[in-house]
Write a structure and sequence with these properties.
Number of strands: 14
Helix content: 25-40%
Strand content: 15-25%
CATH topology of the largest domain: Peroxisomal Thiolase, Chain A, domain 1
Mean pLDDT: 97
CATH class of the largest domain: Alpha Beta
Radius of gyration: 20 Å
Largest sheet: 10 strands, mixed
Length: about 425
């Protein structure tokens, strides 16, 4: 089967809006958390969000939005977007530039796009409320395509004139990891030569606050300690918004264009817990199976893995279940492999978590630096692996794994290898 490589990345995140800034902040332990003004009310227990800087998307009218001057978006594009669509479009432009793609490389039957998002609860609420109060004929004709789960696909496929495969993935926090995995299948089976993978979320009040009702958000009021995966005092995740885009290409395309890839995508696996609608199996059964399936697809042994970017959201049950699954999957090697949760700095990007953490894994391979887990001051006794606490680490990362899991016990694991021409 054809080899598949990552040739371009784009970021709009709480810790930076380009690869260089994101990389610098990961190494310097600079998180993206702030006290979020809409949460500073007595009846809202959570206070901290990973905020996207340089963008203002608070208005329900896209014409009021502000974003960095480097981007030029026409009114007809903006009017059908949600905040996550704006983030994704800007990250897509970065990825296109980073991969050195010409217009002909983007718009052709051999280039497709898979996107992952929970849609825009923010605009869904706004348009539905307008329908009820003012009547259906006072609703925006763009209300549906700007808000429902497929909004990323609709907007990006149209704006970038994508003519190959396209589709959306909605498997909660594993969504964009699934998108990457199925894109790998399409590329290896010869269905496409190039795929854009896009993960993006609004990251605003409507997208994050409902998780407080599930008791899954951190209640910390200090942004500096709000996200602390694997720590004994962890009390939930910090929500965030933004977007990440990856460009995947076959070896033939890489050679034809003469580009230098970041890394190779060598395998993936998925499995389900079959346990609970909201929480992972306490012994991590599904994640264990997903990791084993990924290793089998990659033709790698557990001892080949140098780094694992853990899903680890900073929840009591999730971090422990992942630790147990890694121990079972890796055996004696579990104590030797470097593991970290970059959510300790970025927050949890929900459906886009798989994409951003896949990108971080790719950067760790290219740069030979493993990002740390910050705020791991008092490790949970049951979470006793090497989580790279407090400081980024130089390492020869030849093979990295990225884990994602979500509601319903859905799990996906991706395996990346160093580029060898």
């Amino acid at each position: 089967m054809p080899r598949v490589f990552i040739t371009g990345l784009g970021f709009v995140t709480s810790i930076g809006n380009d690869a260089a800034t994101v990389t610098s902040n990961l190494r310097a332990l600079r998180h993206g958390f702030e006290l979020y003004p809409p949460f500073q009310k007595p009846d809202i227990p959570c206070k901290v969000v990973g905020t996207v800087k340089g963008f203002n998307t608070e208005s329900t009218d896209p014409e009021d939005w502000t974003f960095p001057d480097r981007y030029r978006l026409k009114r007809e594009l903006l009017r059908s977007m949600a905040p996550n669509g704006l983030y994704a479009h800007c990250a897509m432009l970065q990825a296109v530039e980073d991969a050195r793609l010409a217009e002909a490389d983007i718009s052709n039957p051999d280039t497709g796009l898979y996107a992952a998002s929970g849609g825009s609860p923010f605009l869904t609420h706004h348009h539905h409320e307008r329908l009820l109060k003012l009547g259906v004929m006072r609703c925006s004709p763009m209300g549906i395509v700007a808000s429902i789960v497929g909004t990323l696909n609709f907007n990006l496929v149209a704006a970038f004139r994508i003519k190959g495969s396209s589709g959306g993935f909605s498997s909660a926090c594993a969504s964009s990891a699934h998108a990457i995995g199925f894109a790998l299948d399409d590329l290896q089976l010869g269905r496409q030569k190039r795929m854009f993978i896009v993960g993006a979320e609004d990251g605003n009040n409507d997208a994050i606050l409902p998780f407080a009702g599930m008791r899954t958000l951190s209640l910390q009021s200090d942004p500096n300690i709000a996200s602390r995966p694997f720590d004994a005092a962890r009390d939930g995740f910090v929500g965030t918004g933004g977007a990440t885009v990856l460009v995947l290409e076959t070896e033939d395309e890489v050679r034809r264009r003469g580009v230098q890839p970041y890394a190779e995508l060598i395998g993936w696996g998925q499995a389900s817990d079959g346990h609970n609608v909201a929480i992972s199996h306490p012994d991590g059964h599904g994640l264990l199976a997903a990791m084993r399936n990924a290793l089998r697809h990659a033709g790698a042994a557990a001892t080949d893995i140098d780094y694992v970017n853990a899903h680890a959201t900073s929840t009591l049950l999730g971090d422990l279940a992942e630790t147990i699954a890694i121990k079972r999957a890796f055996g004696h090697h579990a104590a030797k492999v470097a593991i970290s949760s970059t959510k300790s700095m970025t927050g949890h990007l929900l459906g886009a978590a798989g994409a951003i953490e896949a990108a971080f894994s790719v950067l760790s391979i290219r740069d030979g630096i493993v990002p740390p887990t910050i705020n791991l001051d008092n490790p949970d006794e049951a979470c006793d692996l090497d989580y790279v606490p407090h400081k980024a680490r130089k390492a020869d990362v030849q093979i990295a794994m990225s884990n994602s899991f979500g509601f319903g016990g859905t799990n996906a694991s991706l395996v990346f290898g160093a580029y060898r021409g």
